Amino acid sequence: MGKKGSQLSQLKSALSSAGVTGNQQNGKKRKRPSAPQEKDKAKRAAKLEEIHKRLNPFDVKVTKLKHEVGGRKLKGVTGKPAQSRQAGIEARKKTLLVEYEGKGRAGGILDRRFGENDPSMSVDERMLERFTRERQRTARSNAFNLEDEDELTHYGQSLSRMDDFDDVGLRMEDEDDEMPGQMSGDVVGKTHFGGFSDGEEDENSNEPERKKSKAEVMAEVMAKSKEHKMRRQMEREEEDNVRHELDQEFDSLRDLIYAPDPSASGSNSIPLGVPGFAPPPKPVELDYDQRVRELAFDARAKPKDRTKTEEEVALEEKEALEKAEKKRRKRMLGLDESDSEEDEEGGRKRKRRKRGGDDLEDDFDDEEGWAGIGAGLEDGEAQDEDDEDEEEGSEEDGNEEEEGEEEDGSDEEDSEVDGEHENLTSALKPSKGKSKAPDKELPFTFPCPATHEELLEILDDVDDKDVPTVIQRVRALHHTSLHPDNKVKLQILISVLIDHILYISTPPHPRFALVSEILPHVFALTRAYPIQAAENFVAKLALMHKNLKRGLAHGALDPSSRTWPGLPELTLLRVIGATWPTSDLNHAVVSPTRVLLGAYLGLARVRSLQDIASGLFLCTLCLQYEALSKRLVPEAVNFAVNSVLHLAPSGYKKADELPGSFPCPDFGSEACRGLALKKGDFKPGEKADLVSVLAAEEATEEGKAQLLGVAVDLLGRFADMYKGLDGFVELFEPLLEVLVRVKGSSQLGTGLKTRVTSVTDAIKRLLRFAREARQPLMLQAHKPIPIPTYIPKFETSKSSYFKSQDPDRERSEAAKLKREYKQERKGAIRELRKDARFLAGVEQKKQAEKDKAYAEGMKKVIGSLQSERAEEKAMDREKSRIKKRAGK
């Protein structure tokens, strides 16, 4: 290196050359360092840092280059590993160490309100206890309150509301930007504890300014005050001049504001620009003050209402409904809306109607009228009490039934098989469409029904078109944000609405239009409370599965056993498909529904035309359920083709003659022989009437034709959905043969033949495409293994630069991306190892501190034990010495 001597001599020479060391003044009195001396200290520290970096050879690491090229600038040749290592440690202390220290912590909000998580306390008890504790806390905090208005007053006024500088009169009239009753900020800053300084000292000046006298300061204050007053006076004069000019031009502005409407036509209007007519002369005297007052009283713009929260909207809806209900009741009682009603213990009071000039004085006595109304109310209250007693009795009966069910829990499996068919709803009467009385108005407030019977009582004499309105008002009155108990009420309302949907879809008068209007409320409640809604749906599905087991146990071919679902069950299955997502692999509601659909289609036997109608509807539901996932449901396809064989004259006599291997246990049975279509047809676009087919006691040719058309359409739709399956050819070739055999029958009408022909052609086309897409199985394709060669490899270029240059751009970009990925991966591994090393050092330091604390504690304990033992030995020696002296 170019330098000679030891490190110490080099350091001394560097310090002396930099001027850091040298002769310093050694005086007895130490002077106070000034600002330039402080700057010299900073410069001196910077020089020392530079000398330290220059003399320490380990702070800089230089990478030796293989070839020196003049003029070339390379990055990363020189580095400072110590500084970079220290910077990395500091960065990890700020980020990684903070995360490590806080990894065991868990945040969150803990509800510490009294009684919030106590289910044994009612809402009123919680609120009463909270109010009591709040009043106790307030009483304890006010024990030493010195600002009580009753004790500390001044001429009847509280001292806390009075200001020490009220009515002082120190404020100037022209100063509008300061608070009333306060002096100018300049005066306070200059004279009050300000040292009478100007406040404009130069920070860079070394010598302090001369201290001004009080007379000079006050003179400056007065000069600034006069200047301020003069400026305000000039501004006021300018404003007055502008205002005066505006007043002079007010006539022209008024003509613009109050100009007549040219489109208005009247008897007093005079056409402008017509010769012979001149506008009237303007009045000389103008009522200026009147015009100003008119402008002052003009309507001003009002701010718009802010966007309200969900809770506020719900509260407004509830208040609006309650207000409308009060008005409706007043109208029912024959009262005016302005009449005031006050409920009291003995009755009600209202203002007397004023007697008019033509009053015949033939109205009823107020006391008698109100007595009659009160009697009616008493009767209603008595009736409500009787209803409550009945409800209590029914609840007791329900409890007894539940106890009986618990006792018979051991025979649950036997009851599932041996019991009778259970209805999905408790209502036994068939539903009929109701019409509201023409003179009866729909109420605005309703209680939230807890059972289906309560809902039927509410909807008594309510028109079907008003039922969604009633449900909407019940939801608005019992919104979750209005009361804590409303959440439980709305959860129960889900099961009530499901029961009502089953009730109104019960034959002989199903009301599917009303079901469609109730469905949006079921969707909304299901989105709000999905768990409770799923439990209600699953309970209904379990009951349907139990009924299926009982029907199969009584006999699948027995005409009296109810193995196929009716209209309520089919409606429930359709509602489930519309409410819940059917494309999920596993779902709490849809998965058991799929199992139940497969059980109906696979285990139930066909005995009548109603069974075929119910099964075809189930096949339609399967098609809708699997529209997105396209999962194969073999039971649905099998039932559709069996329905075609039962209904269409195919010409097959025995089951052995059927093509394919799909099961057909009911083909040719005695119950299915009469289901074949003899002669029937339907119009193009005609839909099957499911309700009429299920309600019909005997099979009709029209119903058979409709169901045959539905079965053929289902086969076409199934073929279109399953065309991507690997076994599509094996699955639909037998079905195509059946359809071709049916198409040749002469007993089909024109509409049926057209539909069967179109479906057959579509399946043929899909089968042809499926066969063309098929390829034979082959062994695993792989590249051929090359024969090893021993020819040496020759390279025309020795430069590594040309090796990395690939003529294929895409391959070059891919190689570049791989290199970058490899570098980033190495860098990430390196950083992770550094993080792990840093955390290991932190843990080791913590463990060392723990060990040190433990060792110190053990030393203290051992030291105390040793001192006690030494004292004990000393006492023993003293005792033995005393005994020896005594001669014992």
UniProtKB/TrEMBL annotation:
Residues 336-345, 359-369, 378-417 have a biased composition (Acidic residues). GO terms for biological process: maturation of SSU-rRNA. It is found in: Nucleus, Nucleolus. Keywords: Nucleus, Ribosome biogenesis, rRNA processing. The keyword Acyltransferase does not apply. Residues 1-45, 108-128, 175-443, 800-819, 866-888 are annotated as: Disordered. Its main location: nucleus. Pfam families: Nop14. GO terms for cellular component: Noc4p-Nop14p complex; small-subunit processome. It comes from the Eukaryota. Residues 207-217, 241-254, 284-325, 805-819, 868-879 have a biased composition (Basic and acidic residues). InterPro entries: Nop14 (IPR007276). Residues 1-19 have a biased composition (Low complexity). Belongs to the NOP14 family. Involved in nucleolar processing of pre-18S ribosomal RNA. Has a role in the nuclear export of 40S pre-ribosomal subunit to the cytoplasm. PANTHER family: NOP14, NUCLEOLAR PROTEIN 14. This is Nucleolar protein 14. It comes from Roridomyces roridus.
